[in-house]
Input
Amino acid sequence: MARFTDQVALVVGGAQGIGKAIGVQLGREGARVVIADMDCPMMEATVREMCAAGSDARPVPCDVRDSAQVRAMVKQVIDWYGRIDVLMYVAGIAPSVPFMDITEETWDNTVDTNLRGAFLVSKAVTPHMVARKRGKLVFMASTNCWDAEASLGHYNVSKAGVFLLAKTLARELGPHGINSNALGPGFIKTRLTVPVLNDPEFMKKYDPARGLIPLGRLGTPEDVAGPALFLASEEASYINGVLLFVDGGQLA
Output
């Protein structure tokens, strides 16, 4: 498949995990991919891997909490290619802390990375899409924005905000030919979930015998990449403002 031939895709938070899987698949399908992340060594390694596989990929360092860095990132992509056809906002953190123990610093850092970053990046990208009357926005929300999980209040709230941001942009930018949607991954094996994957007590509820996930397994980054690319493709040209859960049926 080559659904994204000659398109320019910006994957924010693309150094590893779900973002990397999305970037790799976009490259395989013909996109010119810019990977943005604040983990520069991992980002560089991902870009080298993609280029070695024949993809057109470039890195741009960016801390999404910093508006100046965000503007510089978008300017760099525009200087290189003149446009951004697809924005994948995947950057996010999820420190597990009981509500009464959440510090202001933890709250602010989580909300700033997950939600404020999504605002800053989309605010910098969308004028270029509006000018061209086309574009695809895909935001990484979570099942947690629908079904709150204990000890993740700051994360739950931030991801609910990401979903509402996607819906708001669908309303406002749809008339300009721009689609805005969100994905809601369930429990996916990534760097974010390593601490709980190694916690036997926490993992008891995900025992396949308990049936919490009807498909009987945890998800992988590649399980999320396929739906993300679908929402960014022309096949989804009449899908706007949705939250697509990718959770093995956990919320069914």
